[in-house]
């Protein structure tokens, strides 16, 4: 969602008067405070115990989910849909962004449509996607692809526009062909912002696929969450949500790290 | 060139709509999947007359503004606290960064259990999704206040509270407004999304109801309406922020 609103969860942000951000000790302290607060709330009896289960019940739920073969079958379904969504949305978005970024005329004509449509909640398109792609995995892939498409277009177009004109002039002076310019200049010069685009697109595709599964599906992790809700199996629901958020955070960190390394290797700052 | 290109873009879009109308008429596109654009346009007045679009819009807008207002207030206060106490910032800012990128809307079944199938659920999910980016924006805004302003305030003998009120807050106001813009964006996206998912409330629920009735032109028209409302909303917010930054 952060991507939808154009927010960059800053990496390497200026530390400011509060000093450098992020050391292991304070993070550990925060984790202890949050977990302790949760446990105190769960034990206090202020809230219904099943809704805010104690940590040991959460851990048991998480363990039960991780050991459950059904969960991994659902995860494979969701993973396949997600992969398809990122491939379709990423390639289509990257190609469209390349066109818009390399042509001022196309950008002036069409980019505003992408910018306007980009931040709208894509899940509202799901009824149409069901009609177009069916009730099976196709509509979930389409949902994720549509979600991934917009951040990919905008980040690719911005990345292509940010390529140093000197590099392009050098390519022209060497009489590089179109595909050579693409492979030898644009791709290496835009790898860091492209990875950031994939990072944002991946997060939105994951949301799109899982929300679609919660709405209409008989398999996948989103469906498993709704099953846990229907059975009021709160430890299982928490376990599923923790795994999903953990997976999203891990991919986000890995892609963000890759983007920073690529930016460092090419001397870019993002 | 820019106006001409924009007009050309509009004409191409209109051409695509006309092409779709023709393709449906010629049987190339299935009319039971994609209704004719003229049918979609004709469904709009019906939606306004029969589906209480105006009152649904007000429900969605009310939930959006409630969530955005709450997250801006709480987020700015939390941002100020994180800025004020470095240990707090080092402890919790990375967590807010992770939460800002986390798919919190997926936890909507959990919120349904906690708050029931009510507007409270919609507002709380939108609030929870908007809060982390607002906090991060507020911390960044406070941290970016020029040290010379703070030094001037201290040399005038301002205490902590007066420094916050007379120096920090005015200097960080553009960032606070950016936070409000983010909160409104996240608010609208999540409110409409959750309304659609749990079939409750305003414009999101309208799309869900129409699709369950298999009212295809109505569904497409309602989707178009929501896209239009969102686009107008974001254009107005962007314009407002640019205006404020020019004045600031």
Tell me about this structure.
The complex is a heterodimer of chains A (270) and B (248). Chain A has helices spanning 24-44, 55-67, 69-102, 104-117, 126-133, 137-161, 165-173, 178-215, 221-230, 234-265. Chain A has 270 residues and is an all-alpha fold. Chain A is globular and about 75 Å long. In chain A, 42% of the residues are buried. Chain B contains 11 helices and no strands. Chain B is 84% helix and 0% strand. The radius of gyration of chain B is 23 Å and the shape is elongated. Chain B has 248 residues and is mainly α. The model of chain B has no long low-confidence stretch (mean pLDDT 88). Chains A and B meet through helix 1, helix 4, helix 5, helix 8 and helix 9 of A and helix 1, helix 4, helix 5, helix 6 and helix 9 of B.
Radius of gyration of chain A: 22 Å
Largest sheet of chain A: none
By CATH, the superfamily of chain B comes out as MetI-like
| CATH topology annotation of chain A | MetI-like fold
Overall outline of chain B: elongated
Tell me what portion of residues of chain B adopts beta-strand conformation: under 5%
Instruction: Give the SSE string of chain B.
Output: HHHHHHHHHHH
Gap between N and C termini of chain B: 31 Å
Overall 3D shape of chain A: globular
Number of helices of chain A: 10
CATH topology of chain B: MetI-like fold
Total beta-strand segments of chain B: 0
